[in-house]
Amino acid sequence: MRTMCELCTLVAGKKVPYFTPRNDWELLFLSTDNYKGPPSGFVDYIDDQFATSIDLKRQPHEKLMETARKILDEVVEPTARKILDEVVEPTGLKPELPDDPQVFVRPIPDSDYSICLFLGNAESRDYCLDFVRTASGEPVDLPFTFDLFCIPDPNALASTGGPIVSMRPLQCAFGIPRDEISPGTEKFLLRDGAHCVLQRPGHRDVRFTVPILRRQPRLPMQHVDAHILELPTYVD
């Protein structure tokens, strides 16, 4: 787990490494903004965004700085600091420690790429998958033409199987078009224990099963005011 401040600092540092946030509002803003202009124009850009966010442009010119400082100190900064102090467990943030035991890299046969599985959110039992160059470990988007599916457990009874689901990048679930995903950040969200098939034209299918997170021992069932009928959990 991390604080929002740690998370936003990490994200902002990757997006605009040439700029150091001057206050908590800027740190929060940078973590979600996608500035595409030149570094030389960034300060004017973020100042303009702040002015717009607090409706500052409607103020008379002589009161701009006085009003901005007052709103920043009394309203914006306390709210931003409260958000940044929250402890969160983000989904999709790849660990940066080398040899992390919860990162699994497996080469894809007949290619220069590997799948990389890493823990997304332990509470919701999620893993994330992206593709990396086998030689360097560098994340890449759309390294080749492929389809990724989650399929029912091949060893389960037909009656207990589920649907075949075509997977799309996590960013697409938030309405981000695939061609607008930041380079090297495309990833897929998978449940632990999921059975997956990677299909590529002209190649054999690649199958893998997402690792299952160990659970804490279940607590004994609480007493309920009811008659309990005992039935076997498994039958031959």
TrEMBL record:
UniProt protein name: Uncharacterized protein
